[in-house]
Request: fold
Amino acid sequence: MTHTITFTLNGEQTTATVTPNHLAVDLLRDDLGKTGTHVGCDTSQCGACTLHLNGEPIKSCTLLAVQLDGTEITTIEGLAKNGDLHPMQAAFKEHHGLQCGFCTPGMIMSGIGIAQRNTTPDDATIRHELEGNICRCTGYQNIVTAIREGAKAMAEV
Amino acid sequence: MYGFEYSKAASAEAAAQSLKDDEDAKVLAGGMTFIPTLKARLAMPTQVIDLNSLPELSGITVTADTVRIGAMTRHAHVAADADVKAAIPALAYLAGNIGDPMVRNRGTIGGSVANADPAACYPSAILGLGATVHTTERDIDGDSFFTEMFETALQEGELIKAVTFKRPDAAAYMKFPNPASRYAMVGVFLSKGSDGIRVGVTGAAPYAFRFAAAETALNADFSTQALENVTIDPDMLNTDMHATAAYRASLVLTMTKRAVDACL
Ligand SMILES: Cc1cc2nc3c(=O)[nH]c(=O)nc-3n(C[C@H](O)[C@H](O)[C@H](O)COP(=O)(O)OP(=O)(O)OC[C@H]3O[C@@H](n4cnc5c(N)ncnc54)[C@H](O)[C@@H]3O)c2cc1C
Ligand code: FES
Ligand code: FES
Reply:
């Protein structure tokens, strides 16, 4: 049986018809064209698929599409406003918090969560709270710097 | 994923009844174990009943003697709750070190306890604090809840509604995380309360257990020295690619000593 769901995606009301065995990330990527949310594993460990559900970071590969019904979703595509990067995106650009970029959308969505939970997080806090986001390129150093500086910039706006 | 029907639970009792009517139906809580299992096609339920529609199963009540946590309460909620932090800081610490922030934003205490993963954190607190598991049918003494690997005292069609922990005088949770999965390679939850010392161990054996020899020694003398002659039989512990039973036995003692230190 299919289910018709309605939710807010990056500020826009969205309706979709899904089967129960459809994942939220697959609906977003394959059906709604929001390919900024990545899939890096099958085991809920890499964090590449992180987005915000009702304002909180979650792994969209570990959520059924039907569970999006009635929620408010923000993906990486929803961060920039009128062409201006979100402060966390700008910090990743400024501090070169990426190499290949595959983990980056998840890192930024997690980084915003870290900044929201801790106004000025120190590096140890950032590293602890990044445990669910794996990067195979950078060695994390610049990601930690970017999140620290991005959090400062978020606190200033 | 294989196909299944999906519905939102109308109440815990109604969901439990659906499980009794259809033995291949399953409930969905945080999904942090269940959805990966579905994705790997390790489960083939006929229907999935979503408990996320039941806000009444979520919430924390702290009294002078107890902390009661609803089954659908997320790990992040327990970790950040000011009343839990004040009443049993070790329990908030435990919840705040499960997996990662995204796992903690979804995963629930009910799902974790029902699942009884040998490496899960909460089972050590169930034993280490002396908890009661409230279900749709009855109250289950935490000491008799974990029965085998991934097996509990829950019957078919019986759902967890809440867990009540006794407030201790002091408590500590010491986790040695598996560096890859972040689950506990060994986790020790120790508490000191009116009925003495409790030591709950997870990660080491097929299911969580109380470390009786350590409890006896610590009841006589609450110090790390009291543990010098205490041993644990590696034959009852797990060996896998991450650690041998002998290494786990050593970790159990080391984590227990660290927990004692933290309570002194
Ligand atoms: C990357 C990652 C890292 C993790 N690290 C840790 C860790 O370090 N420590 C740790 O302890 N855990 C860890 N977990 C597991 C996490 O804590 C989950 O919360 C837990 O496995 C299951 O809880 P859930 O709410 O997600 O349940 P679900 O996955 O939804 O359900 C699990 C099982 O319990 C059943 N169930 C759910 N709720 C109830 C109920 N109320 N009554 C009866 N049965 C029920 C379901 O039918 C299912 O069989 C990790 C998970 C991931 C993905
Ligand atoms: S795709 Fe790896 S955690 Fe979601
Ligand atoms: S930048 Fe390549 S995986 Fe992180």
Observations:
- The first helix of chain B runs from residue 12 to 21.
- The mean pLDDT of chain B is 97.
